[in-house]
Amino acid sequence: MFTTIDDLESGQKLLVRFDLNAPVEDGVVQDNRRFQRHADTLSELLDDGHAVAVLAHQGRPGRDSFVSLDQHADILADHIGREVSFVPDTDGEEALEAIRDLEGGEVLLLENVRMCDDELPEKDPAEHAESDLVQTLAPEFDAYVNDAYSAAHRAHASLVGFPLVMDAYAGRVMETEYTANSAIQDKEFDGPVTMVLGGTKAEDLIPVIERVDGVDRFCLGGIVGELFLRAAGHDVGYDVEGTDFFDDQWESHRETIEEILETYGDRLTLAVDLAYEDDDGDRGEISVDGATKETSFLDVGSNTTETYADLVSESEAVFVKGALGVFEDERFSDGTVGVLEAIAETDCFSVVGGGDTSRAIPMYGLSEDDFSHVSIAGGAYVAALTGESLIAIDVLDRE
Ligand SMILES: Nc1ncnc2c1ncn2[C@@H]1O[C@H](COP(=O)(O)OP(=O)(O)O)[C@@H](O)[C@H]1O
Ligand SMILES: O=C(OP(=O)(O)O)[C@H](O)COP(=O)(O)O
């Protein structure tokens, strides 16, 4: 087991990695469950007299959600009830000056670490440890704390580089999510196990379908579901009107998706109908056989939702990662909410994961108590379910 913040001496200068990655709507960062969870870790550290500089990321370069962390500082401040200063820099002079001025009990949020060139390429931890980002920041701190469980499957500099050159501890979120998800991995179920996979990130979900044992069927939706429909020969899963969700992912994953369909097709349930915005701005629905590539599909249709809800109702365990549609818009929430309601009404073991997807629970009046575990992690939790170790956890110090 890794060392945790219980093993830290009080009053140190700490570099702390959070995952504050949140939805951005019209340029406005939306609060999600990650802020509150990390705020609890942060309050504990500040109460213990530590001076804390936080590193975190937001979005991916090229996406609308790739924005500065200035708004995150305000949201975090609301959650901890103290000032959170922000500096629009990660490892330059401005950042170093602000870090050197930090006193015990104070917190500073550094700029979106994905704006630093060293951060993103997936690399070996030893290589990341040599980067300017790590080499510049590490000497300014007594220790490093990683609380970003939901990003722990990424081999990025701020997640895997620092532990090789500093004492490295797990924060509270890291500890609780790791413990909960490891326990799930060891569970056995008497009846059918269903996994509902959707959202935007094919790279995280493909290995799950290929590798996870003990899942009887996968219900697919969202952008990932459309890529599978495209591979199955339907005219969906194409970028329309300037979106950049589909074509790049299709190029990267087409062959694997086709192979999965061939090998594991009997375990996969794909949408039979989809929803779109009609000319009057209302929700329209169409069978996948009648769909055309010029239409943006924003949800699974009602026949699909009914089928998925029925499969959920007869399951012993249900795991959800990723939304079946753009649930943030009520018109396209039926698929995601229909499946969550079916889980809530069924006495099954259930886990709902994903920083975005888990927001649907409070948004549509559902209660977290109706689910066995609601994880703030998406890709990391499903990777853990496949038995994969998470690289940013592997490099933390051991007890
Ligand atoms: N057909 C679709 N088109 C565009 N966005 C979609 C579609 N289906 C789902 N989404 C989006 O997927 C997001 C959740 O996906 P993702 O970020 O991969 O999951 P999470 O953060 O929950 O792990 C939601 O915010 C939702 O709006
Ligand atoms: O939101 C995240 O993951 P998730 O969408 O799987 O919940 C993490 O912040 C990782 O972000 P990334 O998938 O852009 O590397």
TrEMBL record:
Ligand binding (ATP): E328, G354, G355, D356, T357
Pathway linked to the protein: Carbohydrate degradation; glycolysis; pyruvate from D-glyceraldehyde 3-phosphate: step 2/5
Classification via Gene3D superfamilies: Phosphoglycerate kinase, N-terminal domain
Principal localisation: cytoplasm
Highest taxon above the source species: Archaea
Record-given protein name: Phosphoglycerate kinase
UniProt keyword terms in alphabetical order: ATP-binding, Cytoplasm, Glycolysis, Kinase, Nucleotide-binding, Transferase
Pfam families in the cross-refs: PGK
GO MF annotation terms: kinase activity
Subunit record text: Monomer.
Assigned EC number: 2.7.2.3
Subcellular compartments: Cytoplasm
Family according to the record: Belongs to the phosphoglycerate kinase family.
Catalytic activity of the protein: (2R)-3-phosphoglycerate + ATP = (2R)-3-phospho-glyceroyl phosphate + ADP
Transmembrane segments: none
Organism name: Natronoglomus mannanivorans
Enzyme class: transferase
Binding site for substrate: D19, L20, N21, R34, H57, Q58, G59, R60, R114, R154
